[in-house]
Amino acid sequence: MTAPSGAPPDSDAGRALNPVAKLLTALVIAAALVLSVDWVSALTALVLELVLILVLGVRLRTLLFRGALIVVAAGLTAVTILLYGQPSGTVYWHFLLVNVSDGSITLAVATFLRVLAIALPSVFLFVDVQPTELADGLGQTLRLPARFVLGALAGMRLVGLLNQDWQYLGHARRARGIGDDGRIRRFAGQAFALLVFAVRRGSKLATAMEARGFGARTDRTWARPSVFGVREVALVLAGVGVAATAITVAVLAGSWNFIGTR
Q1: Does 217 reside within a domain?
Q2: Membrane-spanning regions, if any (predicted)?
């Protein structure tokens, strides 16, 4: 969703959706889908999620690229269920612990669709979310403790440095002549060095944040206001609608299979 030309950044048309609304939407849909293992509710939710994602303006290229990764992950999960799921009905192939039957095929299809339906909103709703925006929303909208929010934000911001640190450590070890023998030995030694480096950096960051008053238990102010308005409420209600529709369709179709009854 893009802002109209000339719209101020703090106006309703000029700001992005609050990350808290996206988080709540993903949680509502996921909570509804984990209640049952059936393909009808998963397929219904998946179709409605695709419509919602397109309405939110996710680019087609991003949709195809990240969607392909989700499909691969869901496919690997479905293959595992297909081969090692509990057999029922007609058995088509049996080898040692592998049983491909009517029951395992049905469960594999349901699992594939369910993984897609749960992962899709969790990935695409957070395509353009910045860690700082999410921290502002968690602290101001959900009223989570500022000490926890700011600590998590600092940790998330440092994750991006791990790849750079790994490269620098590799160059330094090769320059000293200790990184040329044995890939496994080199990887283990470099990983341990990276762990030590990350712990030291985290300790220094924690000390610096305490010195600047980030650990104070009094109420703090926030530099950027986190607004939870009509659009955010509409997004959460859309998530509730997706979840409710998926459950209703599955119940009417007679495929609803509550996990507590398995």
Answers
A1: no
A2: 23-56, 63-85, 105-127, 233-259
Q: Which domain holds residue 243?
A: 19-129+226-261
Q: With beta carbons less than 8 A apart as the criterion, state whether 66 and 124 touch.
A: yes
Do 179 and 116 lie in one domain? The reply is no
Shared-domain flag, residues 23 and 46: yes
249 within domain boundaries: yes
Residues 152 and 205 in one domain: yes
User: How many C-beta atoms lie closer than 10 Å to residue 13's C-beta?
Assistant: 12
Quick one: pLDDT at residue 56? 81
**Whether residues 108 and 28 fall in one domain:** yes
Mode of pairing for the β-strands spanning 91-95 and 98-101: antiparallel
Q: What is the pLDDT of residues 167-210, one digit of tens each?
A: 888 888 878 777 666 777 788 888 888 888 888 888 888 888 87
Asked if the model's pLDDT at residue 240 lies above 90, the reply is yes
Least Cα distance to 222 among 117, 105, 155, 139 occurs for 139
The pLDDT-based confidence of 236 (bands split at 50, 70, 90) is very high
0.90 exceeded by the pTM?
A: no
Report the C-alpha gap between 223 and 183 in whole angstroms: 47
Q: Return d(Cα 7, Cα 115) in angstroms, integer.
A: 39
Q: Return the ∠ at Cα 222 (arms to 231 and 6), rounded to 5°.
A: 50
Write out the H or E segment, with its range, that includes residue 93.
Answer: strand 91-95
